[in-house]
Specification:
The chain is mainly beta. The protein has three domains: 33 residues; 86 residues, Immunoglobulin-like; 107 residues, Immunoglobulin-like (Sandwich). It is 12% helix and 50% strand. The protein has a four-stranded antiparallel sheet, with no helix packed on it. A four-stranded antiparallel sheet has the order 8-9-12-11, with no helix packed on it. Strand 13 and strand 14 form a beta hairpin.
Length: 262
């Protein structure tokens, strides 16, 4: 082998150079595979993440019959943007502007609210005038503020039991006169006559009414009677129930006259 190399120095030199080149290329290829084939001549650049737009994550409302009001709550995330203000609308009517508040309560008698479905919109302003908005629906009962009573009377309306229902409604959505149904522990059915009604307070388009119904009784049973009542507002599909118990022989009859209109 040594004698061969000595006799072929030029060939041997070229062979050694080729082997060195192959070894170098092999090493570079292995290194590139281990480094994920990253090119040495291209710099690594960190791409900054884009800002996320602000979002309203919560907006809901509820009608409160006992308070004649609607409560609205909301929540939002600014995501590193500059907050300006919040505006609350009913339709195209601006109800209020907020900065730090996360809830509000409004009367059903204001801002043109109606019975049935009401659409509210919350607008979030940020970064000098950019707006994100969201809507929610709140249903206001067609008949609310309902109060039902019964009493024994002997007055200008006659003798017996007077049943009344007081309620409010929006005049833009008439509810009509409710139809009364009565069942008692003594009889499967009692005849109740509609006597009339009396208009009470009015606020905007909302009217308060008392409707009167009479069960005439000349012969009073001497035992406790249970009346199960229901008032049916058929035009809007609303029905309310009540119950009343009393021994007519022990009742205190009111003699005060009541003026009603049909």
């Amino acid at each position: 082998m040594i004698e061969f190399i000595k006799r072929n120095k030029i060939f041997s030199g070229c062979l050694i150079v080729c082997l060195l080149v192959i070894a170098t290329l092999t090493v570079r290829l292995i290194v590139k595979e281990l480094r994920g084939d990253i090119k040495d001549d291209l710099p690594i650049i960190d791409v900054p993440s884009e800002k996320t737009d602000p979002q309203i994550s919560l907006f809901s409302g509820e009608f409160h019959d006992d308070e004649d009001s609607i409560s609205l709550i909301w929540d939002y995330q600014m995501n590193d943007h500059a907050f300006e203000k919040l505006e609350l609308y009913h339709g195209e009517t601006l109800i209020n502007t907020f900065t730090n508040e996360m809830e509000t309560t409004i009367s059903v008698f204001d801002y043109g609210l109606v019975t049935g479905s009401n659409t509210f919109e919350l607008r979030l302003y940020y970064d000098e005038g950019i707006v994100v908005n969201v809507q929610t629906e709140v249903f206001v009962d067609y008949v609310f503020d309902i109060e039902m009573k019964a009493q024994a009377v002997d007055n200008n309306l006659g003798k017996g039991y007077l049943f009344t229902i007081e309620y409010q409604y929006n005049t833009n959505t008439p509810v009509g006169i409710p139809v009364i149904h009565i069942n008692s522990s003594l009889s499967s059915s009692w005849d109740a006559s509609y006597i009339g009604r009396k208009m009470q307070n009015r606020q905007g388009n909302y009217q308060s009414v008392i409707a009167y119904y009479m069960v005439y009784m000349n012969d009073l049973p001497n035992e406790e009677v249970t009346w199960d009542l229901s008032y049916d507002f058929r035009s809007v599909g609303v029905r309310v129930n009540d119950s009343y118990r009393e021994n007519p022989q022990e009742a205190v009859f009111s003699t005060e006259d009541i003026q009603v209109s049909k």
